[in-house]
Amino acid sequence: MATVRIIASKKNWIEGEAELQLERTAQLPGMRLAVGLPDLHPGKGAPIGAVFGSEGVLYPYLVGNDVGCGMGLWQTSLRAKRAKLDRWVRRLDGLDDEWEGDTARWLADRGVLASHFDDDLGTIGGGNHFAELQVVETVVQREVLSELGIDSDRVLALVHSGSRSLGGAILRYHVDNHRAAGLTDGSDDARRYLGEHDHAVNWAKANRALIAHRVTQALGAEMEPVLDVCHNCVEAGTHGGRPCWLHRKGAAPSDRGPVVIPGSRGARSYLVTPTGDDDDSGWSLAHGAGRKWPRSDAKGKLGRITADELRTTALGSRVICGSRKLLYEEAPQAYKDIDMVVEDLVEAGLCTVAAVLRPLITYKTRRR
Description:
368 residues; alpha+beta; tRNA-splicing ligase RtcB; five-stranded mixed β-sheet
């Protein structure tokens, strides 16, 4: 029987449907661990903000269609004190458009095979994906920033995106042939899926790097990588000293060094250092704030707030989002309190805060 755990304080509201989805998923054959993190919220059949450990079988649908989705952080040559928001907003446009560069070369330089979906390379996608310019607002662990090569006077670029249509095609093939069933460890179907999965993970990483390149190039700047962490994937791991498949569905790994946990588009993000050294958390941390409202409810709950008001946040940052529908769906109010999410992780002994990052400009979709 699987161990089920939710890492959240009593102050942190977790929707009942998310808890039910966690319990139901824990009953799947071979499941040994189901952990809900502080950003846990309902998904399509399985919750988001969770990690699942199974033995002898792996479940592609728990990874979902955005295989390899994650967060990448780059340091730019732009100086925070010289930020020109109005000018930068004007220059940032067209990241939805197909990149005009050599996608085959970009992938090859990173050891990634080309695919039938490479027209998507360098584009952000919809939903909660974004590219965001940030500054370091508060330094808590200066030694961590030093180890990562972060200069607190520089502007950072945080990119949240995944494998786009490539990941969708991988999941569709699995569902067409297996529905939501798992794949037996070592089977031909499992080997096929894992090969495609690993390709999509690497493609997604290359995609985030190209998005960051396009952002910094548009601003006449240079960039250097800081970190890149995948939060939608399955990989071989252990639980209780036994081998298992760790499925992360909106969960950042805690065994690969510092990670960025972003807030909503109108909230701060946190650079944290993992400290938990046991497998009760599935070697994972929260990947963001987590939704508080369903997308279909967002506009109604926001009342009389106008689209223009949502394009400038309470922190003074700008949001580039030409889709009115997406602007309301992704409003800061539709997300949980990122401060509470991170506080829950710290109180659980899973991480410490290294720095607090403040948004300057968030790019969602082009201006219309």
